[in-house]
What we know:
S-adenosyl-L-methionine binds at residues 44, 69, 96, 118. This protein is α/β, with parallel strands linked by helices.
Amino acid sequence: MRVRNKPWADDFIKDHPEYIVEDPEKWIGKWSQKFSKDQPIHIEIGMGKGKFIIEMAKKFPNINFIGVEIQKSVIALALKKLVSEKLDNVILVHTDGAGVNTFFNHHEISTIYLNFSDPWPKKRHAKRRLTSPKFLDSYAEVLKKDAPLVFKTDNRGLFEYSLVTFNNYGMHFDYVSLDLHNSPENEDNVETEYENKFSKKGPIYKAIVRFNNKKED
């Protein structure tokens, strides 16, 4: 997702340290201090403008949510929504999602969401896909044992690649849908901005998988 530069973004981010973190490595092992309650933590990597994570936080107040996004103008738009909602169970992290194992402890996270990640369609860019083996390594470190990784995309090529990668990694498949919006499970689906806009143009694919073969610490 690319948006135009927002001249107000820097100042707005600085004005709301209660909702946004720009130095996540300093909070490893201390994330509960950023929330009003010590609850399970779910993270969304590449959260875009924040519709999904904010709606999830409203729907599940007994869970703490962390949205990770690299683009400053995008995260500033999400921050605007969060400030207006005044939720106490959402924190936004302005950083690259490639390093989740550098700012979360082992087995600290209860669920990871990957929603409509960049497909990086060229073969030489496969290692940049958020479902590539090097990213799965980092997720396996931070997820609690038997915790789910929830993946949605509208890109058939990325979905097929991801299913193969999950299988080769030895993951357990809880759920796979080739057309989520025409499935009974869609009743509980929380949409992203992108999903709301593009689901009319083609199917949405979804998988829920678990690292059932992770090595014991």
